[in-house]
Amino acid sequence: MRFSRFVCWSVVVLSAASLAWAGDGNRLTYLDEPCDPYYAGLETARLVTPQWIGEQGVETALVLAIDDMRETGRYETFLRPIIERLKKIDGRGPVSIMTNRVDPNDPKLDPWYKEGVNLETHTYDHPCPCLGGSNFDRAKATYDQTVDLMKTVSNGRAVAFRMPCCDSMNSASPRFYAEIFNKTTPSGNFQKMDSSVMVLFTPSDPALPRDLVTQDDGQQRFRKYLPTERKFINYVEDYPYPYVIARLCWEMPTAVPDDWQGINLQGNYNPITVRDMKAAIDAAAVKQGIYVLTFHPGGWIRNDQVIDMIDHVVEKHGKKAMFLNFREAYERLTKNLLGGEPLRTAKGQDNGVRLLDVNNDGYMDVVIGNQTVRQTRIWQPEKEQWTCVDFPVEIVSANEQGDLCDAGVRFGVLQKSGQASFLVRNEKVAGLWHFAGGKWEADAQGMAGLEAGGPVATARSGRDLGVRLRDLDRDGVCELIVGNPRQQAVFQWLPEPRGWRKLPFALPAGAAIVDAQGRDAGFRLVDIDEDGHSDVVFSNAERYALHLFSSMAEGWSRQILASQRSASNNVIPMIVRADGSNNGTWFKYAHLWVQNEDVGERVMIKDRPTLIPIESRSYATLLKGADAIAPGAARQAASQP
Known about the structure:
By secondary structure, this protein is of the alpha+beta class. It is about 15% helix and about 25% strand. The protein starts with about 60 loop residues before the first strand and ends in an 18-residue tail after the last helix.
């Protein structure tokens, strides 16, 4: 039964709790940053299950997702008791099977679909890592082949993907999402959802009872499962919610531990692993989040142990919990959260849908701006219903070929209340809007002073012009940075008198946010010296640099590193390649990380040579300069945080 909380009402009632969130001027930066699968965390606005599930009283969603299928018989045998147990709950047997390959005419498929089972994708050849062996084309081909194959199976029901070995090695990467997942296959097919990033519950989350996240000995319950001997970093912490990677990919994080992590730590069928899996379920329930179980058919976990977990859910959480497959989750997210507007169009392009906390109350809201819908959807947690108001502009616009392109809408925080603002200037529209009083209000002086050898624009002809809103001085209000080959400037917002004031510094020489084609130029704002201010890291195929922030008078004046790149000079790895593609670099836990087809080394683990497909630099090492990085250091992963 559908519940009326998903009706859009015409009046917005702002939560008084919004004032408690004021102060984080950079809380919306993920919307414009290049691909980062790991930005979500405890400080990210929540996307709780009641916002998208579409069923009264349901607070937690669970997906059982089994990996590696190439033939159906083994999976039918292993899953049959699980499916039958699930059917006793509400007549359905929702399980997602992550499939490498399958005969589209296999007679088992249609009965499975009718019961609630759905087949998803898992690469055709199951390479570990997918990006490896210095062969990008092979990685894309094995992904494309399984996606195209699954489109022929029962009218293309597959919507989700999981990266092989994502639980045991760093096989996921910003390069994969940017250059493979968010593209289309040669046949024009694509996937809509991923479940390759793991979620780790920690004692840092004040919402979680201590007995769920700590053991009797005081140690963390879940962190012990991370294969740190493999330099494992493929996880987010304390964010058991769907989130969006690079505008086009729904991420459904899968829980630590899964069955491989259980056997790696303490052997097959271990009851302690199942106990901890139940604790992770309970933690997701406390957070009103999702719980995704990654498991395999036999050897690591028994089907009766999975049934024991289902029994636990029914007995402890009852009708507050709902089992879904990935397709059902995607359909409910699209219908109930996004009002029927998917992230990707039928051609796989950006549909102008953005998830952000508009009113600064700690919950994700939705903004839609395309050719047919302009809408702001505000979640009211007290009433558990959506409120809808207009959105003034297009977020994506059609070019002459009919393809949708970024229109240059840039979100940030310009109000002391912490509520969102956005700025745009393209061929069609120019202005600044603030969310206040339950609606978007245009600021008559919103473009005043934005001149840097000519008017500052955010996009032209669908090209990003490198305008970003970032809080540089930590006062809770963003500055505006312009960084393209023709314009370089930084502006400060002046609420009284309203308008922008150009500051006496710009980006460091040679650095740019975008190149002449509007592509990522290899620029990142990262707090390398951990003083609370964003520093500049710039790295492409030609050069690299690190400049530390000094002050609002001098900007990034402290140069630590700056050099032309050569075959033997890789102090800061490339962030983008010469062809403009993402090189698989990201920053987290005081380290720079790189995962792509060209990195990695084999080390001995448990007397076996094991591939570690990642490189890293600690911030401390970068701050010491080029002389501190010895030859070959690129292949030495720094200590695990």
